[in-house]
Design goal:
Length: about 325
């Protein structure tokens, strides 16, 4: 009897303490994100999905060294009006990480896998957000089937000549992929470099969540992952060789585009974004006072401009 009374009293105290606390609002179904996996060409691909699949699809293609995690705040906002897919490339995020000696870690392969994911989901046409590595992936997909792409949201995703001096170690690695030059490249895979990529050029580094650093570095530090990243660093030279071809495709097909570019990015400075002005006529252009990961400081602005842009390009 005394135990029952004590339990009842404790319950009453708890109820009284919560009486003035508002209940947490349930996430609207349209904003809920599902974390899925599928096997494509014998590789498990993880992806985030939200929104109504009957609505137009937005494909979010992440950059280095992150994953679909970079879109964590953007996805629910877009999903109110669109179907959103945000995959992780092999070796990134929650996707499988086959050893580098048994898998072709290249931007060609990534583009084929992302196209196969769209096919598996029954997506015929889509708009693509391309950032960093997402640009060479997305532009290869565009080159393979230009009519499938409704438009591009381009955020520090390059397709133009003039890479700055910060690329000098990468250029040396392209010219001579020796163990010595490979060791120099490993600096880009350290926590120091990860923090730099997220904070360099930002207005206020204290506003950049350190969750980004720990998430990324945990994945980079997995056994075998550095070799994967070195393979992709070396393959990036093939992207540069394709810049003229992609520019010609832009001029020929004129995909609508929204440029939201971190102007202070030490890897892809704002002047590289100017090339899109020369080739694309249906273009909305914004240089933002931030660095490589513009969503971290300009997420609400980018989401607002994206929704307005998507409302236009998805009209039949």
């Amino acid at each position: 009897m005394q135990e029952s009374l004590r339990n009842a009293a404790a319950a009453a105290v708890l109820a009284a303490s919560l009486a003035g606390v508002p209940a947490l609002a349930a996430e609207p179904p349209s904003r809920q994100v599902a974390y899925r996996t599928t096997v494509i060409e014998d590789v498990e691909i993880a992806y985030r999905e939200a929104g109504d699949p009957a609505r137009p699809t937005v494909l979010l293609l992440h950059g280095f060294p992150t994953s679909s995690h970079m879109f964590r705040d953007l996805i629910p906002v877009l999903a109110e009006r669109y179907h959103v897919l945000a995959p992780d490339y092999p070796g990134f995020g929650a996707s499988a990480m086959p050893p580098v000696d048994s898998f072709d870690y290249s931007f060609d392969r990534f583009a084929r896998l992302m196209t196969a994911l769209l096919d598996a989901k029954g997506v015929e046409r889509y708009a693509a957000y391309v950032m960093d590595y997402g640009a060479p992936v997305g532009y290869r997909m565009f080159a393979a089937d230009p009519q499938r792409v409704l438009g591009f949201i381009i955020q520090n995703g390059n397709a133009y000549e003039g890479l700055p001096e910060t690329w000098d170690p990468v250029r040396a690695y392209w010219a001579d992929p020796s163990p010595e030059n490979a060791d120099h490249m490993r600096h880009f895979l350290t926590l120091e470099s990860t923090v730099w990529q997220f904070t360099a050029g930002t207005k206020d580094p204290s506003k950049i969540s350190p969750d980004n650093f720990w998430h990324v570095q945990y994945l980079l530090d997995r056994p075998g992952n550095q070799e994967i990243q070195l393979a992709l660093f070396y393959d990036y030279r093939n992207n540069v060789a394709l810049y003229p071809e992609w520019q010609a495709l832009f001029r020929e097909h004129q995909p609508p585009a929204l440029v939201v570019w971190g102007n202070n990015d030490p890897l892809f400075p704002g002047f590289l974004a100017e090339g899109y002005r020369q080739d694309l006529k249906d273009l909305e252009f914004h240089l933002l006072d931030t660095g490589h990961f513009a969503l971290e400081e300009y997420g609400p602005f980018i989401a607002e401009r994206m929704l307005a842009f998507l409302d236009l390009v998805t009209q039949e």
